[in-house]
């Protein structure tokens, strides 16, 4: 690699501060079944850090595993339950309040808190599932999304401030990831196109 002028781009480790008191964990109901047969069956959520000049801000997302569609996201200067709740409620409203969704996340305090449990309870029939402690592979698709954003879009030195970060994240998700970026899981279709074909096929089958 040295002779060819190549450098390895590895993300630096980051430790989250504890923003909420522990409330309750849940069993791993998803069990790495990352291939639902339709939208709104399984959603996953996670939080990652985004570098800004003054330190860090935090991004929470909610992913529909069917097409890896990012339905909800939120950016804040604190990785707390307010951040994850806002992302979940955005997803719930965007999807027109579906019922019976399985929501999977890690065991971070922003997902185990009482405040987040109340947010989940407000979504009709939603059940919580959680990764085993310290096992990032139990939520691999969401981790993969964060890696894609950081390697494809985020500048190496991060953003000027949280406002620039929010703008860039919005541009990436809505302007590129959802409608342009091919995804190997979707047979190299963007999430929006995979969902469009699914719904068109179901409409035609009903005629």
TrEMBL record:
Coiled coil: none annotated. Residues 35-198 form the Integrase catalytic domain. Gene3D superfamilies: Ribonuclease H-like superfamily/Ribonuclease H. Pfam families: rve. InterPro entries: Integrase_cat-core, RNaseH-like_sf, RNaseH_sf, Transpos_IS3, Transposase_IS3/IS150/IS904. PANTHER family: TRANSPOSASE INSF FOR INSERTION SEQUENCE IS3B-RELATED, TRANSPOSASE INSO FOR INSERTION SEQUENCE ELEMENT IS911B-RELATED. This is Transposase. It comes from the Bacteria.
